[in-house]
Specification:
This protein has ten helices and no strands. It is mainly α and 236 residues long.
Length: 236
């Protein structure tokens, strides 16, 4: 439980994060300043430095909180799918990612837009990056489960582009730390690039030149990806 002082500090940090998010949603990322947050909370800007050393550290904390929320929603959705239904898990995770992103466009922009500036505090970098890794592992774990249960066709190393090969190896060995063929890593990245890229285009309004409702196009993408990794596409 911690001491009373620890609980009060945790409650204040939570209020600061919630206030920062409210300003982000209502006014945009440029408005999320220590002065604006302090004004909303009835504090002085210098008082906030007892909790965050800089504006960049505060934003990194908010990034971590948002990744944690998104990861929680994905995992909650996955629990509603039978354990052995890999196709269902892939569909529900992809759709939930899109739904959260469209419902929270400014939060999405903070997570997947331009990197947050002012980063230099190692502790907060670790917090934000760890939360981001937990989010990424939600999808990577699906690939691991799928590969163990029913391996899908992947190219051997000698058929992978020689420019990609060392990058895939470095990503697998130093970032993921898993024992998987490089072809699986390549397929994972191909799927993620299509999924996250498609969602980004929709969230940022870059499909409005042609589509007023991009959901059918998103579903078409899922239908094309599914058989590439041995899954069966099912409609919503």
């Amino acid at each position: 439980m911690g001491t009373r002082r620890d609980r009060l500090r945790a409650a204040t940090v939570k209020e600061i994060s919630e206030t920062a998010r409210r300003i982000l949603v209502e006014e945009g990322p440029e408005a999320v300043t220590l002065r604006a947050i302090a004004r909303e909370m009835g504090m002085t800007a210098p008082a906030l430095y007892r909790y965050f050393d800089s504006h960049g550290e505060l934003l990194r904390h908010l990034v971590g909180d948002l990744f944690t929320e998104l990861t929680g929603e994905l995992r909650a959705a996955l629990k509603r799918v039978p354990h052995d239904d890999m196709s269902g898990k892939f569909m529900v995770a992809s759709r939930q990612f899109r739904s959260w992103s469209l419902a929270h466009p400014r939060e999405y922009a903070l997570l997947f837009g331009a990197p947050v500036r002012g980063v230099g505090e190692q502790e907060q970098v670790d917090f934000a990056e760890e939360c981001a890794r937990q989010f990424g592992w939600t999808f990577m774990e699906l690939f691991l489960q799928l590969w163990k249960k029913k391996p899908f066709p992947v190219p051997p190393d000698d058929e992978i582009d020689p420019v990609l090969l060392p990058q895939l190896r470095a990503y697998r060995d130093t970032v993921l730390g898993v024992e998987l063929p490089l072809g699986v890593i390549q397929q994972f990245l191909k799927c993620w690039i299509r999924l996250q890229g498609g969602v980004s285009l929709e969230v940022f309004g870059h499909l409005e030149f042609a589509l007023t409702d991009a959901e059918p196009m998103f579903e078409l993408m899922l239908a094309e990806i599914a058989p590439q990794i041995g899954l069966t596409y099912t409609r919503r």
